[in-house]
Design brief:
It is found in: Cytoplasm. This protein is an alpha/beta fold. It has 18 helices and 10 strands. The chain folds into 2 domains: 81 residues, no CATH class; 311 residues, 3-Layer(aba) Sandwich (Rossmann fold).
């Protein structure tokens, strides 16, 4: 019996059987478009060997031997090149591979940075870091209980996924992936949910373990780094205020609008991911923030194993102070107040504090003042008294918003390593 390509069907059966029994022989499977180029390269090696043999004494070299060697070399190079292009075309554009390999290898030599936090602040820093290193680890707070994340937490009992999605998108090596992960459904049963949130939910439902789901997400998305939750358990944030009252839940904490004394995780998590602890031990630099002080940055390191690992870590610790205060959370806080809250909850002083000190345009300040947000005041004297190094400068991104510029911040951070 013959196939439409006029090859015996038995040939295909034998090839498939050998490939199943000996996986390396899968390259011999029909249709792989590899055998022909391997044969061409092999012919080139044979011609080169035959031609070179004519140069060996005795007898004297034949006049045509050099041409045979050059022809064999050309066939070898052409065969190997075509074989590589054929294999790479199954995954990507072959022309883009050299640049991608160069970038990846250069970034793999970058510093090992572990960044803590959540929300927009951390994801912006990650976007800057991925241009300097492929060794970034994001440890993300999972206590958010608002919006799509809150609905999924209530329905499925999983940790908050929204900030994790932001960080996964920020470290993505594919330009289209952030837009896909952030796509928000506008109608139907999924209205208000983002694709990224549902993606992590699906992985969790399949794995039946949130830690395993996150590992799978890291592998599938092929990041320039890695993203882990502060804990794979579904915990909530609890705040104790200066007046002695206690409130549970990030949304409720913001709405309370009081002076916060300290925050906790409820219940106390029993698990953290070993991959996160290993990254802290091996880090060249630990970075906190920027982000909402009590509802993003501090919850990202509150699990006890993380606190213990950071206390023992030899890497310098840097805290990036917010540009603006947060209504209902850090009203009236100075840069030093932010720093003291971090040191209190962490049990370790940051060695370096990065503070934006350049003027913020009046029109930007007016827009934020309408929301009850104001520039974070900075006084260098209390930092000097504590022996803390302050890196002050212009770290704002040009535009209508008061946001950190990823490149400016990361240049200052990388200079510390």
């Amino acid at each position: 019996m013959w196939t439409r390509r006029n090859k015996p069907l038995g040939f295909y059966r034998v090839a498939k059987g050998l490939a199943r029994r000996f996986p390396p022989l899968r390259w011999l499977h029909p249709g792989m478009r590899v055998k022909r180029y391997a044969a061409l390269a092999g012919l080139g090696v044979g011609l080169m060997a035959y031609g070179l043999a004519r140069f060996l004494p005795p007898p004297p070299p034949e006049p045509w031997a050099l041409g045979l060697v050059l022809l064999g070399l050309a066939l070898l190079v052409g065969g190997v090149r075509s074989m590589n292009r054929s294999m790479l075309s199954a995954f990507t554009e072959p022309e883009a591979v050299p640049e991608r390999v160069y970038v990846r290898r250069r970034l793999e030599q970058g510093p090992k940075v572990v960044a803590f936090g959540g929300g927009t602040g951390l994801s912006r820093v990650l976007r800057g870091l991925k241009e300097h290193t492929a060794n970034t680890t994001a440890i993300v707070a999972v206590t958010d209980d608002g919006g799509s994340t809150g609905r999924l937490r209530l329905a499925f009992g999983l940790p908050a996924v929204g900030d994790l999605v932001d960080c996964l998108a920020a470290l993505s090596d594919h330009p289209a992936l952030p837009k896909l992960l952030h796509y928000r459904f506008q109608e139907g049963e999924f209205k208000g949910h983002t694709f990224g949130n549902l993606f992590l939910l699906t992985l969790n439902q399949e794995a039946r373990d949130f830690a395993q789901a996150i590992l799978e997400a890291n592998a599938i998305l092929q990041l320039r780094g890695q993203v882990f939750p502060a804990t794979p358990e579904a915990v909530r944030l609890k705040a104790r205020f200066r007046d002695g009252s206690e409130v549970v839940g990030e949304v409720a904490i913001r709405e309370k609008r009081g002076r916060i004394q300290e925050v906790f995780l409820e219940p106390e998590p029993q698990r953290v991911m070993e991959e996160a602890l290993r990254a802290i031990r091996q880090a060249d630099l630990l970075v906190l923030g920027p982000g909402s002080l009590y509802t993003s940055v501090i919850p990202s390191f509150l699990p006890k194993p993380l606190l213990e690992a950071m206390a023992k870590a030899r890497a310098p610790l840097v805290y990036v102070v917010n540009l603006m205060t947060e209504p209902g959370e850090t009203d009236g806080y100075t840069a030093y107040d932010h720093y003291k809250a971090i040191a209190y909850h962490l049990g370790r002083r940051p060695e370096v504090v990065l503070v934006h000190t350049a003027p913020i345009p009046e029109e930007v300040q007016r827009r934020y003042a309408a929301e009850g947000r104001f520039p974070v005041a900075f006084d260098p004297r209390p930092f000097a008294a504590d022996g803390v190094r302050v890196i002050a400068g212009d770290f704002r991104e040009e535009g209508p918003l008061a946001q950190h510029d990823p490149e400016k911040v990361v240049r200052a951070l990388v200079a510390l390593v």
